[in-house]
Amino acid sequence: MAVDYKDYYKVLGVSKDADQQAIRQAYRKLARQYHPDVNPHDKAAEEKFKEINEANEVLSDPEKRKKYDEMSANYQRYGYWSGATANNAAPRADAYRGGSYQYQTISEEDLEDLFGGRSPFSDFFETYFHSGFAPHDQRTSAQRARRARPRTTPGEDVETQLDVSLADAYRGATRVLELSEPDGRTRRLEVKIPAGVDDGARIRIAKQGIAGTDGQRGDLYLLLHILPDPRFTREGTTVRTTVDVPLVTAMTGGEIQVTTPDQRQLMLRIPAGTENGKAIRLRGQGMPQRGKPDQRGDLFAVVNVVLPGPLNDEQRRLFAAFARSLSGAKEATASETGGSSYV
Question: How does DSSP classify residue 265?
């Protein structure tokens, strides 16, 4: 009898090049959604749960996944897999040798409790991977005794987005999170945001996810989103900010204050004759390297020359005289060098 081909990647909703972490996350999400405890007396959910566990049993085991991928490639190319006849007849039971595999996705006790010792696997799986399930009347007394044990479910990983200000990313911070449990209770958790984190950084906090019935928790993953700060732009460990410099200070030199992302005030020397748009480096005042808070990039202060406000008559007269003095200086320089100057 022919057996139907099973696309396990499609069952879990992952790509064929998915890594083990992606497979594990997809399985846990679907298993929780379709678990019989969550969907009592729902035959459709029960069948889906069986299918999900069967797919994970194969794809989470490197040896079984390799054999499955080889079969799939052959099926996609020729319309049947190794061990099958050209007219799609049933494959030989020994097409893929390697012995009987023990089910690894959930415990044997859970399977017996859920399905009464009946194999939860499809004919396709049994043909190639041999679950090793015995008929109900052939189970040992130890297997029957295990039926009385309470069923357990594993802890679950949780991922949540956390908004972080640029100031907190600059200096590091401690945040208190309020997490909701499946039973409606909440718990508070203090987490540390390391200095130098980038937008999109993923932080793992071990054993702080959702607890299983065995008391063991999965992990909590924080996906960080660095909130934009209109005063600063960031490129890795380099930070840029714009500073307003009065015209007189830009022309004659002086000092101005520069604000860092953590609100400290630094004094910056402005050289005489500084042009608009010039970037002045403040070494070691940029973002720290993650994991190396003592090693920082640079902060660049980009000069924005600010013109004086409306002038009174006396001020306009003085500026006009100043402009004429500049023109005279240019003409004198041109005459000394034999050139000409146009104002």
Answer: E
